[in-house]
Structure formats: structure tokens, C-alpha cells
Amino acid sequence: MQANSSVLDIERNCAAIDRAAGKAAQAGAAVLLTPELFPVGYAPLRVRAELDPQTLADIRRRGLFWNGRLFGTRASFVTYLKAQGATYTEWARRYPAQATAFAKHKT
């Protein structure tokens, strides 16, 4: 992924990752690499001074962390599953606790 992030605009940056992950998965990719500090924006001194550490925990709770990847939306996770040859329904049946927790944080 080649993109510029917005400093401390986590919602916008994570949405950009979701869009890029969806496009990459549709093209057959199993992994998406992002620029360093992309979710928070690359401005280390500003991030250190202004970012509430609780925000990072909130990012993780908003999405699904699965197989070392963070999925911010159900759509991005479904795209990932399709690329793996599976469906969300199959996954949810196999991992009901994770599916329930993920559903609680989605709109």
C-alpha cells in the first residue's frame, strides 16, 4: 500500500487500510503492507505528545484481530475470507465467540 496518512485521524487512516485491503484481496493478495505508523499518521513526535495510549486499545476493540491482521470492517474481513476460500458464515460457525465479539462492535 502506498498512501499518505493523516496525522491522528485514525478513523480515516483505518478506512483507507480497509479499502486497500479489499482491493488487494480481490486482486489475490493475502497480505497488505502499510507504511510505518499508518493508522496514527507518521509524525512520531506529535503522536507521542498527543496520542492517548487508550486509543490504540480502542482501535483493536473496534475491529477483529485475526491471524495477525486487524480488520476494521466486516466487509474487509469477508474479502479476506473469500481470498482464503472461505465464507463469513463458515468462519462464524467455527469460531462463534469471535464472531459474536466482532458483531458487537460493528454498525
Key descriptive features of the protein:
single chain; 107 residues; mainly alpha; two-stranded antiparallel ribbon; 6 helices; 55% helix; flat
* DSSP helix fraction: 55-70%
Average per-residue pLDDT, rounded, comes to: 80
Please give the radius of gyration in angstroms. Answer: 14 Å
Q: In total, how many domains does the architecture comprise?
A: 1
Beta-strand residue fraction: 5-15%
> What is the number of helices?
6
Helix-strand topology string: HHHEEHHH
What distance separates the N and C termini?
A: 26 Å
Identify low-pLDDT runs. none
Number of strands: 2
Helix-strand category: mainly alpha
Oligomer classification: single chain
Largest sheet: spatial strand order: 1-2
Gross morphology is flat
For the largest beta-sheet, the strand count, sense and barrel status come to: 2 strands, antiparallel
Summarize the structure.
This protein has 107 residues and is mostly helical.
Word description of this protein:
The chain is 55% helix and 6% strand. By secondary structure, the chain is mainly alpha-helical. It has one domain (10-104). Strands 1-2 form a two-stranded antiparallel ribbon. A hairpin with a 2-residue loop joins strand 1 (64-66) and strand 2 (69-71). Helix 1 (10-26) runs parallel beside helix 4 and helix 5 packs across helix 6 (96-104). The two termini are 26 Å apart. The mean pLDDT is 80.
SSE blueprint:
Blueprint: H1 10-26, H2 44-50, H3 54-62, E1 64-66, E2 69-71, H4 74-83, H5 88-94, H6 96-104
Antiparallel strand pairs: 1-2
